[in-house]
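Lab notebook, design round three. We kept the backbone fixed and only want residue identities now. Task for the bench partner: fill in a sequence for the structure below.
Input structure tokens:
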């Protein structure tokens, strides 16, 4: 994708779009239209969508077409995910979705500057590319992936950076679930600020 399109957001590298159930965090269980964008240079070893990392493998689609598909779906909320969606300018996408009375949600590592107007920001910080301080202040939800016990310290670092109203979640890394979930349960029992997020869509065998 050329630099001009990157800056304007009039085309976006679309990996997939589909109607499904939100499977993680505060809005778990709710219906939403998902827009997955290509591009991510963070490179988490446990990522469940590495196919999205290279934006050149995914077509640059007119953002108006992406918006139209969301509207046609009949949804009242859109979740923009990736990859790392904030690699792209999302101002136009959000503005047009809101014109159609669609709520906007984003799942982001926070490693790139925020664009777009969001009804809900889920911040999931990654050690490879930590988030900017600015997005920590406005995140609605902090979701930290727990792979080993060392990740609790990482989680606490960002608990101190987000606002008081931010909802705090610890989520077991899927492939380590059986080993790490007892530690997460014990941690939440003793640290009442935190909640546990489970990837319930995987238990339901849905995208």
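Proposed sequence:
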């Amino acid at each position: 994708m050329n630099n001009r399109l990157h800056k304007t957001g009039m085309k976006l590298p679309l990996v997939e779009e589909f109607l499904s159930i939100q499977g993680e965090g505060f809005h778990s269980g709710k219906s939403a239209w998902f827009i997955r964008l290509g591009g991510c240079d963070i490179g988490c070893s446990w990522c469940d969508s590495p196919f999205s990392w290279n934006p050149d493998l995914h077509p640059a689609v007119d953002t108006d077409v992406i918006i139209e598909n969301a509207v046609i779906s009949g949804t009242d909320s859109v979740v923009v995910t990736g990859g790392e969606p904030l690699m792209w300018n999302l101002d136009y996408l959000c503005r047009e979705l809101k014109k159609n009375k669609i709520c906007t949600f984003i799942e982001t590592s926070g490693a790139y500057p925020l664009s777009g107007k969001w009804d809900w920001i889920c911040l999931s910080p990654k050690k490879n590319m930590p988030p900017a301080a600015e997005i920590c202040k406005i995140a609605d939800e902090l979701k930290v992936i727990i792979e080993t016990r060392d990740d609790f310290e990482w989680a606490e670092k960002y608990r101190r950076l987000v606002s008081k109203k931010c909802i705090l979640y610890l989520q077991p890394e899927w492939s380590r679930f059986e080993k790490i979930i007892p530690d997460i349960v014990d941690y939440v029992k003793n640290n009442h600020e935190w909640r546990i997020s489970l990837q319930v869509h995987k238990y339901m065998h849905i995208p």
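Keep this in mind before ordering anything: The chain has one domain: 3-203.
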